[in-house]
Fold:
Amino acid sequence: MLRAEAIDLYYGASRALRGVSIGAEKGRITCLLGRNGVGKTSLLRALMGLARIRGGRVAWEEEDITGLAPEDRARRGIAFVPQGRDIFPLLSVEENLKTGFAPLRRRDRAVPEEIFSLFPVLSDMLRRRGGDLSGGQQQQLAIARALVTRPRLLILDEPTEGIQPSIIKDIERVIRMLGQRGDMAILLVEQYYEFARALADDIAVMDRGEIVLRGKKDELAEDAVRRHLTV
Structure:
């Protein structure tokens, strides 16, 4: 469904991505692992059109979307949950969810009931401001807002960062359920091998702006992966 081929990305004279290729398929969870600063978030920004690439191409459902703006990629069914969540702190939980209506046709602009079965805590907090939620609750809200757009590709940038263990378990459960449903491709960026391994069908590992390991989860040796995750 998603194919990024030979992506080169620069910030000024600094080369952040070096010929990176990666894919994500419907019904599978692809985990991208790597230490801080190796280019994981830069790659996601390139996939979403938030950073202009200098070389390579991005294809989605066999359409070249390399030149499309982020909002046009969202209209094609790509949803992004950024690192840091980026919810609107002064808007209520319900209003935050409704910002997910932006790429939808008018007749589809309703919050699916499934959102509240996936994240029951949100149904009790609809009138609370986003900024009053805990970090873990904000992360659940950010994922829920992405799901409001009815994505066929869900991209998550380090959803466990700064989250208490109990909510990490809830987020893991939701991601696994979405992957098992079979109608969505999921690309998950993580630093923590245990979390990624519990969920992944496929794993890619980045180091210094390049993919240095890739394969099905069970085909990769744990020590080879961990070698690129330790400082």
In short: The chain has a mean pLDDT of 94. The first strand starts at residue 2 and ends at 11. The chain has one domain: 2-227.
